[in-house]
Known about the structure:
With 339 residues, this protein is an alpha+beta fold. It is built from 6 helices and 17 strands.
Amino acid sequence: MGVVMSSARPLASILRIGSHVRMKRFHLRSSVRRLVPRAARVLSLAVLTGCTTAGKTGGGEPSPATLTVVSLNLRYDNSGDGVNAWPNREVAVIEALDSFEADVIGLQEALPHQTEVVRTGLPGHAMLIRTRELDPRKGEATPILWRTDRWRLDPLAHGTFWLSETPEVSGSRSWDSSLPRIVTFARLIPIGSNEGRSAVWIYNTHFDHRGGKARLESAKLLRERIEAHADPTEPVVLMGDFNAVPASAPIQEIVFVDASTRIPLVDCWAVDNADEPRNATWNGFKAIEVGRRIDFIFASDLEVERATIEHPLVDGRPISDHWPVRVVLRERPEGSNVR
Length: 339
């Protein structure tokens, strides 16, 4: 059971969605994309996806025509973290998330009481959430938040599925996964001043931290789901903590493109920061900038205007054991048919 939360309404009026997965199924149109032979896929990746780099803006806030996305692993509330425990950083987390002025936020490792803090701390956002456990009141979640003045949830295209051989079975896990793992997804429809632009598909996940086979099979399943259910004429954003570095098999599976690919995805940070050595997203509560990049935002059919790994601190310490990833995206020029 999924739950949609809005800080504008009390918990008593939470809308409960009666199915794990509510999807629209779309069929490939012959005119949707120009196919490129597999041998050319590496050289043509940016052109295929349309997720190229726009001119740098030189800082400042994104324009209303952009889509700003943030992914952050909150680090679950663990009293063993000592000075870095959740109560010592929750205010700083809210301040950081608010400062990013994001249209869409994806969180990982979010326990129910942590998501309630975030929900109340970001009154301009609604939240879609379902925990990974059989009991939806327990365990970690990968919630999606969106600005309610710019977007509304498609009632027929949102939900949660499990990264397992039985994706519709709550709490399920497969392969060598140490824990149940999930994907939360939502199709967001523009409203208000945002009307006139395309709807966007958002996927948020957290791959297993121990099971190498589970990470690879999760990547395959996730790509299959996106290919089968997202509308190939609309932008797609996939984000999360993948517990895998860029050259690993799971990440390569996600960005793989051949002639049969309907919705090719690119690593937005890599598009904008090809030679940047300060790439760490996992920090272990240390103020490091060079290390393992395991948190990603991927996109299709969008231009990357700016992609950054942010470094917010509280009393000189990171606000989480992961740095937030922030990407500013822009719709492709109207009339372009190169994907």
